[in-house]
Specification:
The structure holds 2 protein chains of 2 kinds.
Chain A lengths: L1 H28 L9 H11 L2 E4 L4 H18 L17 H21 L3 H32 L4 H10 L6 H18 L18 H4 L5 H26 L8 H25 L8 H21 L3
Helix pairs in contact in A: 1-9, 1-10, 2-9, 3-4, 3-9, 4-5, 5-6, 5-7, 5-11, 6-9, 7-9, 7-11, 9-10
Chain B lengths: L6 H24 L6 H20 L3 H19 L8 H26 L8 H9 L4 H16 L8 H7 L2 H26 L5 H23 L4 H28 L3 H36 L10 H4 L1 H14 L6 H14 L7 H33 L6 H4 L6 H19 L1 H14 L6 H4 L7 E2 L7 E2 L1 H22 L3 E4 L16 H4 L1 H6 L1 H4 L2 E9 L2 E13 L3 H25 L3 H23 L4 H20 L4
Antiparallel strand pairs in B: 1-2, 4-5
Helix pairs in contact in B: 1-2, 1-8, 1-11, 1-17, 1-18, 2-3, 2-8, 3-4, 3-8, 4-6, 4-7, 6-8, 7-8, 7-10, 8-10, 8-11, 9-10, 9-15, 10-11, 10-14, 10-15, 11-13, 11-14, 11-17, 11-18, 13-15, 13-17, 25-26
Classes of the chains: A mainly alpha, B mainly alpha.
């Protein structure tokens, strides 16, 4: 139980660091002076001290939605697979609940975008709705494939099973699912090539456009939600697709796990430096690749024999 | 007349009452808005009673009588406001579609009862078992019930009929009447037409998957809020059919408990759809009542004037989008789980095909979220887009009470899901299915299990409690911080924000419409008043997109064209002079003689060609004659 709670605290603390890490790696590769890894915490503290400015046109939704954006993600943190063998994990939650919680958070984020009557908000919501509608099938098919390889639909149990008996005979299927999931990780977290979190240009904004009118503590909540979402996806990727290093004692296992998270963040940063953002109407092609890989993963799994 | 009250019938009586009682309050509040009150009252109560009659009918004649009564009363209810534009064609269409289905039901009953419509359902099973072509009966039932339920390709009447009806009637029709068709499927497939070949289940699954996708895609392109909701009914009927089809498939494969699980999922979604769709139609009705327009582009900002409508609508929207921890999520979770249990099937081609249904259902889920963000955001959030929206107020207490009561039904389906599932289980056991309740809730009501090996688990109540607790903690922390709040107008990069600068519903669905343009084939009208000499500057402009449903365009229009063509020739035939009739008789005699020679004696291409030429010339000269 201590391991469980400290894992959640660890993930919460790591969330802003990982995003700052991606930024720092990108800056370093572009010969800029990298930001500090603690920048996320500084921004958070700064936003907490500010007053909130609420739009005159906004309704009660603006005052409630930021909490509902963050809380499903915080709840999802409790349901992630364990990072060390024998540690406590929640066994009664399956992957659908997890994707449902993520969708709930996105739902309120999109409503928030429409609340302030700004054309930017509507634009961001419309684009986000488009992208997340196409993410959904790929996500569910990938999850289905992985959970069959793991022999359990429960997300925690799947992580444990994969670490204990890695399905060697289904490595091809496993790799296809991993590729698909990685594309989804990029798309759902709004990273390049799907969305650029660093610009505020109306041609490219998706996530930033929705929260253009959010300030102060509300903005802090939304920013935290973004970083928590990234840490959820990164740790799902680490537990499901990099299933090793769990046999150690809690502390070394946690170290390995954190290493894996940073590896995922590094991969995202490298992709961001090396690709340009896609036009919105090219994004379905990328998601189409994810869908095709998810199907391939399922089909190879079935054809090679369960 | 004979009635039966077995658990399935009682279950659907319960469904009708759950849907109708809140509707009564809402109707009471809506009544002053209606001119022909007695017409409305009589048909409204007759409609509810006839629905009750259908589900408790014990033989063919009672069933058909109440079924027809249900169709006729609902037809008259749509006609409550006949002077509104589009109502008459919509009712005519509805009248035609509902009787199209009725013909097939009648055929089914005539065959399945051997002509004696007064025998009970149990005896019908014996007759059906000896009938040589059970697939014929299956198609009769499918056409009969699906034309009522509104599944592809018999769904085209829904987006016309539901918007034309007064809102409480739309809520009843979409929420409850479509479910009567689902009752019919449960009653006659599980009771009378059992057992099934594998193909039937697959057909139902395919129809379900197609309906769900088609429904949600056309909902997205819709601007009329009630037509949008009607399209979502098509989607949800599709989801119910996916569950039903999986149940049939598992049953054929001998996986009894998985089949029960899928049927329970279908029943659960039937109840859920009844609750949230009624609530959504009531909400839409309240908005319509206050703004006097169905056009979603004229709404906006209504959450400020109509908080109760807005928040109950939000509950229903979250539920229909299948987001946790709502009841919509639970039933869709069950349907997903039964699709995922397909990995235990040994038939490889079926096993490889079911992921496509999963894909369809998941895409539907994603698009439904997009659609309800659009419907909710454009209607209730932002600035008022028209004077009508600016003058809106909260509706009267009776209507409010109706909406709150229906919200209560939604919440009860969410909180007491185990009790409802127990009811569904009892109904299915009474039809000779394997009970699945103990397998779904093996450790008490907290955790809901999939019955498949290594299936998923969900804990609706724990999920709800944890979400509430975390949100509450965050809100408490926010209060404790004591943040100062300041109002300021929306920052729009130096421009002023106004009602016209907001995103419209058309714009919101733009990316999706563009991505699926191969399906929509939208007709765009762009009109601009350019300033002379300045190509890119304009004083006034308007942009409109119209999407005409594919099925209507291809299937129905071509049928209509063929019927026109045939009737034209029948008309010509009926208005011939007597000499032409004589010529026709002569030609017919010629044809009979020639064909007799060909079929009865010998056949040679040469004489056949010669005779054909003689026939054509004689028809051309004698019957068609010269062009006037």
């Amino acid at each position: 139980m201590i391991g469980y709670v400290s894992t959640i605290v660890l993930l919460l603390l790591l969330a802003p660091i990982l995003l700052s890490f991606i930024k720092a790696v990108k800056m370093w590769l572009l010969y800029k002076r990298p930001v500090s890894l603690l920048q996320g915490f500084r921004d958070f503290g700064k936003l907490l001290r500010k007053e909130t400015v609420v739009s005159e046109e906004a309704s009660a939704m603006t005052r409630i939605a930021p909490f509902l954006v963050l809380s499903p993600l915080l709840v999802a943190l409790f349901y992630l697979p364990p990072i060390a063998k024998g540690a406590y994990y929640v066994s009664f939650v399956d992957a659908f609940t997890l994707t449902g919680l993520l969708a709930l958070s996105t739902f309120f984020l999109m409503l928030l975008g429409l609340d302030s009557a700004s054309s930017f908000g509507g634009m961001g919501s419309s684009r986000e709705a488009f992208i997340s509608a196409l993410v959904e099938p790929a996500m569910i098919l990938t999850i289905f494939s992985v959970s069959m390889m793991a022999g359990d639909l429960g997300i925690g149990q799947a992580g444990v099973n994969l670490a204990e008996h890695f399905p060697r005979e289904h490595t091809a299927s496993f790799l296809f699912a991993a590729i698909s999931f990685f594309i989804l990780l990029i798309a759902e977290n709004g990273r390049i090539p799907v969305d650029n979190p660093e610009t505020h240009l109306e041609l490219t904004m998706v996530h930033e456009a929705m929260i253009l009118d959010i300030t102060g503590v509300y903005l802090a909540l939304i920013e935290t939600a973004a970083s928590v979402k990234f840490v959820i996806f990164a740790s799902l990727f680490a537990s499901l697709f990099l299933p090793f290093g769990m046999e150690e004692a809690w502390l070394p296992a946690a170290m390995i796990f954190v290493g894996k998270l940073f590896a995922v963040a590094l991969a995202v940063a490298l992709i961001e430096v090396n690709t340009a953002k896609l036009r919105l109407f090219k994004v379905p092609n990328l998601l189409g690749i994810a869908i095709v890989f998810a199907f391939l993963s399922l089909i190879t799994y079935y054809v090679l024999g369960a | 007349m004979a009635f039966l009250f077995d658990p399935l019938s009682v279950l659907f009586v319960f469904l009708i009452l759950l849907g109708a009682v809140p509707n009564l309050f809402y109707s009471r509040g809506y009544l002053p808005h209606i001119e022909r009150r007695w017409h409305y009252r009589i048909h409204y109560f007759a409609f509810i009673l006839s629905m009750l009659g259908v589900v408790v009918a014990a033989n063919g004649v009672t069933f058909l009588l109440f079924w027809e009564l249900m169709s006729l009363t609902s037809w008259q209810l749509i006609l409550t406001e006949p002077e509104e534009e589009g109502t008459i064609p919509a009712t005519r269409f509805y009248f035609f579609m509902t009787h199209f289905g009725f013909v097939f039901l009648l055929l089914f009953f005539l065959i399945a009862t051997d002509g004696d419509l007064e025998i009970g359902f149990a005896q019908m099973h014996g007759i059906v078992a000896h009938f040589a072509y059970p697939s014929l009966l299956f198609f009769f039932l499918l056409l009969g019930f699906l034309s009522k339920a509104g599944a592809v390709p018999l769904h085209v009447w829904l987006p016309y009929a539901h918007p034309a009806a007064p809102s409480p009637v739309s809520a009843l029709m979409s929420g409850v009447m479509l479910k009567i068709a689902i009752y019919g499927m449960f009653r006659f497939f599980l009771d009378v037409l059992y057992p099934w070949p594998l193909e039937w289940g697959i057909l139902v699954l395919v129809v379900g998957a197609l309906s769900s996708l088609v429904g949600v895609l056309y909902a997205l392109s819709e601007h009329d809020i009630k037509a949008l909701l009607a399209n979502h009914s098509i989607e949800n009927i599709g989801i119910i059919l996916i569950g039903f089809g999986m149940g049939m498939i598992f049953d054929t494969l001998g996986l009894g408990i998985l089949s029960s699980f899928a049927f329970i999922a279908a029943l659960f979604h039937t109840f859920n759809h009844m609750s949230f769709k009624s609530l959504l139609f009531m909400g839409a009705g309240s908005v319509l009542h206050e703004t006097h327009t169905k056009n979603i582009e004229a709404y906006g900002g209504l959450i400020k004037a109509m908080p109760i409508t807005a928040w109950t609508f939000l509950l229903a929207a979250v539920s229909i989008s299948a987001l946790p921890p709502t009841n919509g999520f639970l039933s869709e979770w069950m349907i997903f789980q039964s699709l995922l249990s397909s990995n235990t099937i040994t038939d490889m081609s079926l096993k490889l095909a079911i992921p496509f249904a999963i894909f369809a259902l998941a895409l539907t889920g994603g698009l439904a979220i997009a659609c309800f963000v659009k419907a909710y955001g454009i209607t209730f959030l932002g600035l008022q887009r028209s004077a009508n929206a600016r003058h809106a107020h909260e509706v009267n207490p009776a209507m409010r009470l109706g909406m709150l009561a229906m919200a209560g039904v939604v919440l009860s389906l969410m909180l007491f899901a185990p009790s409802y599932i127990r009811l569904f289980d009892i109904a299915l056991v009474s039809l000779g299915r394997v009970g699945a309740y103990d397998a779904i809730f093996p450790e008490g009501i907290w955790h809901m299990h999939s019955v498949a090996i290594n299936g998923g688990v969900v804990s609706p109540l724990i999920l709800l409690a944890s979400l509430l607790a975390v949100t509450g903690l965050l809100l408490y922390a926010y209060r404790a911080l004591g943040v100062k709040e300041r109002l300021h107008r929306t920052w729009a990069c130096g421009y002023r924000t106004g009602p016209r600068t907001q995103y419209s519903a058309t714009g919101f669905a733009g990316p999706i419409r563009r991505f699926f343009s191969w399906l929509y084939r939208p007709q765009e009208h762009l009109h601009r008043e350019s300033i002379p000499g300045h190509e890119s500057k304009f004083t006034d402009s308007s942009y409109e997109v119209h999407v005409r449903p594919l099925f209507e365009r291809s299937l129905y229009d071509s049928v209509a064209a063929a019927a026109n063509w045939v009737s034209y020739w029948v008309y010509r035939l009926a208005h011939f002079e007597q000499t032409r009739y004589a010529a026709m008789i002569f030609n017919l005699t010629l044809m009979v003689l020639f064909s007799y020679r060909i079929f009865a004696h010998e056949f040679s291409w040469a004489t056949f060609a010669l005779e054909s030429v003689v026939m054509v010339i004689s028809i051309k000269v004698l019957i068609i004659g010269e062009k006037e």
